[in-house]
Design goal:
The complex is a heterodimer. Chain A is mainly α. Helix content of chain A is about 80%, strand content about 0%. Chain A contains 13 helices and no strands. In chain A, helix 5 packs across helix 8. Chain A is globular and about 85 Å long. The mean pLDDT of chain A is about 85. The longest helix of chain B is centred in the last third of the chain and has 18 residues. Chain B folds into two domains: about 150 residues, Dipeptide-binding Protein, domain 1, CATH 3.90.76.10; about 230 residues, Dipeptide-binding Protein, Domain 3 (Dipeptide-binding Protein, domain 3), CATH 3.10.105.10. In chain B, helix 17 runs antiparallel to helix 18. Chain B is α+β, with helices and mostly antiparallel strands. Chain B is built from 18 helices and 18 strands. Classes of the chains: A mainly alpha, B alpha+beta. The interface between A and B is large, with 49 and 45 residues.
Chain lengths: ~325, ~500
Amino acid sequence: MAYYLLKRILSVIPVLLGITIITFTAIHLAPGDPIRVRMGQRYDPIIADQLRSELGLDKPLVVQYFIFLKDLARGDLGFSYIKGQPVTQLLGDKFGNTLYLSFSAMVIAIVIGMLAGILAAIRPQSFVDYLVMIIAVAGVSIPVFWLGLMLQLVFGSYLHWLPVSGMSEYGATIWENFKHLILPAVTLASVPMAIIARITRSSMLEVMGQDYIRTARAKGLGTRAIIFRHALKNALIPIITVIGNMFALLLTGAVLTETVFSWPGLGRAMVDAIGQRDFPIILGSVTLFAVTFVAVNLLVDIVYAWVDPRIRYT
Amino acid sequence: MSGRAVARQIYSTLVRFDHNLKLTSDLAETWEVSPDGLRLVFHLKENAKFHNGREVTAEDFVYSFNRLADPKTKSERSILLRDVLGYQEFREGKTNRLSGVSAADKYTLKVELSKPYDAFLQTLATVSFAVVPAEADKAVTGGQSGGLSRNPIGSGPFKLADWQPGSYIRLEANEDFYAGAPYLETVVFKVIPDCEAQFRAYQNGELDASNIPDGKLKEIIRNEELKGQLHHNDLIAIQFYVFNTQREPWKDQLFGSKKALRQALNYAINREYIADELLDGRYKPFVGIIPPALADWYNPANSDEPRYRYDVDEARRLLEVSGHPQGLFLPQKMQLLYNEGSMQPEVAGQVKGFFGDVSVNVEPEPLGTAKFLEKVHKGDYFIAHGNCVAEYPAPDMFLWRLLSSENTGIQGNWAQWHNDEFDALVEQARAELDTGKRRLLYWQAEQIALEEAPWLFLFAETVNVLIKPYVKGIQISSLDADASFPNNDLSHVSIVKTDKD
């Protein structure tokens, strides 16, 4: 296992190298000069040249890339061209905000999605089953931004129950924090919740038909014990795969939700940076996303082994 | 939200504008300008303190002006000091300070100009000329210099309390403010880039003031509750398209001007229709360069008898005169560049339609900011969208900056238009001390530009914002371009809620 882990962690290096080379090349090939964006209509060629030299933009691309790599190895992602602040500091907060939102959405998706899936699987073809599946299909089909807008209209504009923009301010109460989180988290949770409900249902249905479940029933175990002690654990493997993939997708896919709810997250920061050609922020965000993707996938593999002792890694 | 608006609350300047755009005192108690317009003396208030508790003195202004001019600061706004004595020498590294700025004593600041500049006093009211304490500017925090960009220390009515980039900026009252502590204990500027999201947050009671999304103005006017919260004013800002006069077909030839072609297109569009139907009435049709909101300088003849009205026959006639009857010999497709943003696709689409009516084909091409500026910088366009929002109420913001040969290119004159007579008049006006004569010189220059038509003249802008009824004391001026109120001193603003609120 330790060898496997080491191998997986080391395999991140070529992945990161590849991603950074592609991103670096793409942003430099795209038209648009960050200095022009920064100076706008007050562009002055002399000051622009000074800035280019200070930011290292006058060096050959290969040299710029190796400087980026050298700094990256020390955990330094450079300074934002536009905001002039360290990228690690700027993105650190935003990555935390995106993690907070995505993790909350994932908890909602797992708890409600799995419960709904189990309920549907216990009584297949029943009213509950149909209802869960209709909601699940709707959850997958409704665009996230539309759902977000509708939730804002209902719970914000009409009922005035919940805030519709941004995070709570520093020093706010836990309740205030929670109120700001509810609508974006539920919006972001909608798609994974629906997928988890569908996967849980089909996986549970398959397991519930197995002989050992019949045996468990025959020896007189209660429904709750059968479901949670026997059926669910065996039905978990495909669910965990989906959850792992979903979490990685949630992190990177949160940008729409972040935009609708003005949530100061990493996705929004990256989109803004692309518009402004703020290269260090773009590279920093892509690197962070890549590391997170790989880390989540690794975590999923480890959890497999814990759930299913038959799986062994070499 | 504008960064300028936040800076306005944290920092102080020598002078500032009131809501009628009259210059008024900020840290300068009084000031005098010599009859030749070359020497300005400011007598400072003696009770002003920075947020770190230290007294503000004339030496701090000397430091702040030098900081702005210093090539090491790399400020694109240093050009505002262009006419201060010693500026060129300082920029070229021949001296290590601005010789024209000095402290006569602790509370007296002297500024000498190399030549008179009519709007210099007004530029001093912009936050570029805010006074900063040297010790905070040079402070090294966390191993990084440039302390002010992270920990701004000013002498304004509010202090920075909390800054979450991309989320919000929270300011708290400066109890030691020279004019007395502000009424509000806290002001929060929220970063909500999407205007629709701002509006929803406003309706939900999360914001006390908000901008209005495109297409919502008429709906708000029909809504009894929101109508009372709507505040409207003319803005010192214009919208136009530039013809790239260094490129065919707009380029004047050795034996013939292309003025008639550019004029023809100015006759071909119906500005009233576009403004009323598409732009919700928030833009006003305007054929001119000095906008109506710049009341002291605006030429009313531009409203009474606009140089161009919608006249398809006249447009066709001028096309013939220019050698392009029925759009003959014009490029098949000419790109009309615009920066993706507010209402631009609709305007570009309409312009394409009106041009099509006189057989001139243009193709709207929306671009992101970076790509748009790149193309403008390279001069790689036939027609491009331009706009100008004034930071200070002076005609040179428009005539000199947007059309003088000195500013050719990305700095302002995107049309790359050159006219010696225009340049001479504008330069003469900038140095003219008599207001009446100066106005006439600017009007003459404006008429030349209108006649030569380097632009497709379009609109003057208005500002429309929503403010909750319990917010008292905000006076919207023609410099307040959005709901962050960059020209307002929020120390006079208070919140008076009743049971209804």
